[in-house]
């Protein structure tokens, strides 16, 4: 398989080349130090796999991955980075990356990941996989809190996110302020938050009313 290495750290490029060029089935066809250079190299070299860093100058690895996959869907991109931040992992996967590996990965495991990607599989570093599983579990918990609210409570919560007072909500929803207070008490209990500000922040953070 033909491999293009993309990283803005020369030490990393040297280390990858040192290991990979000893593997009989791997041919290092080129190197690039940022996303823009990677796009140029892809056009010229037509690699099978691009090992792509995320944080680079000029163009980051996520944008470069998206551009590569849009024009060359048959070229596989494996993100190889030191960042396990979910804010990088999810965008990289959405951009079309076939794998997300961390630079501390065992070299033999990296080779196995490359072979798996060539076979149409998706590979994730164990640490990244565990973080995504935790994220999904927490997302389910947040959704469960939302679904526990009654339709009226959701209306109240939405108005809370608008910054409305109890009196304003009562007028808009044609109910008494006492009823508004009762609903708010129930909302806080179901969401397990202490006050209406925390409830509003939670709802906005998880985009409950953008669904």
Give a nutshell description of this structure.
By secondary structure, the chain is α/β, with parallel strands linked by helices. Helix content is 58%, strand content 13%. It comes from Natribacillus halophilus.
Describe the protein:
The model has no long low-confidence stretch (mean pLDDT 88). Strands 2-1-3-4-5-6 form a six-stranded parallel beta sheet, with helices on both faces. The chain is α/β, with parallel strands linked by helices. It has two domains: 2-125, Response regulator (Rossmann fold), CATH 3.40.50.2300; 149-210, Winged helix-like DNA-binding domain superfamily/Winged helix DNA-binding domain (Arc Repressor Mutant, subunit A, Orthogonal Bundle), CATH 1.10.10. Helix 3 (61-71) links the parallel strand 3 (49-52) and strand 4 (76-81). The protein has helices spanning 10-20, 35-45, 61-71, 86-95, 107-118, 126-148, 151-161, 166-173, 177-191, 196-205, and strands at residues 2-6, 27-32, 49-52, 76-81, 99-102, 123-124. The protein has ten helices and six strands.
